[in-house]
Design brief:
The protein has 200 residues and is of the alpha+beta class. The chain has a single domain, classed as Cathepsin B, Chain A, CATH 3.90.70. Helix content is 32%, strand content 21%. The chain has six helices and eight strands, in the order αββαααβαββββαβ. Strands 1, 2, 3, 4, 5, 6, 7 and 8 form an eight-stranded mixed β-sheet that branches. A hairpin with a 7-residue loop joins strand 4 and strand 5. Helix 2 runs parallel beside helix 4. The protein is globular, with a radius of gyration of 17 Å.
Length: 200
């Protein structure tokens, strides 16, 4: 029996190493309470909608446009060098894309208050989520604002659109957002509450 336990622990350790190679090593960020009760990023941007598993490119393009780089989602996705099965992109792919465009990027793992504080810096924040509550599919979205009831996002899945605002196209109740932000799976046990802070 001890040999089996040792093998399970060894396998678990390798899974964690592979996850961190593919996603990058997140820097923890825990905030007790964000100073702002609500915040919205106001910028002249546009929403684009993905046709395949290329949300990584579309969410990244939204942030890059905010930072003054004129790029569409298809082009951004084509510039991501690392793709897994079905075209899915691990976090390291977004990091490499940002570095190609001479941007600073930090992969964070934190709580909701830390995410809110990052949004308050004035740049959309890419968040790694499930596509919906109860879904097994993973998805990247750009968070552009929040208040005491909702997280406001620029989402590249057209069927998620539930707003005609020019500043966001999807509002997610905070309770639901917390559920979709729990992305850990048996083969990604420590991959949850991830977000990317990107700036010039």
């Amino acid at each position: 029996m001890p040999g089996v336990i040792k093998e399970i622990l060894r396998t678990f350790a390798w899974v964690i190493v592979i996850d961190y190679v593919l996603f990058g090593l997140p820097i923890p960020k825990i905030v007790r309470k964000c100073k702002q009760r609500s915040y919205m990023i106001e910028s002249d941007n546009r929403f684009e909608y993905q046709k395949a598993n290329d949300c990584s490119g579309f969410s990244s393009a939204y942030v890059l446009r905010h930072l003054g780089i004129d790029i569409d989602g298809v082009t951004a996705y084509s510039q991501i060098p690392i793709k897994l099965a079905h075209g899915n992109v691990p976090g390291i792919g977004i990091i490499i894309l940002c570095l190609k465009h001479k941007l600073k990027v930090l992969l964070r793992m934190g709580n909701l208050e830390a995410l809110k504080e990052s949004v308050c810096k004035g740049n959309p924040v890419i968040v790694f989520t499930r596509s919906a509550v109860g879904s097994r599919y993973l998805h990247y979205i750009a968070v552009v604002g929040f208040d005491e009831e909702y997280i406001y996002t620029a989402d590249s899945l057209e069927n998620h659109v539930n707003s005609d605002s020019k500043l966001y196209n999807r509002r997610v109740p905070i309770a639901d957002f917390k559920k979709i932000w729990q992305t850990n799976k048996i083969y990604q046990p420590l991959i949850f509450n991830l977000f990317f802070e990107i700036k010039r």
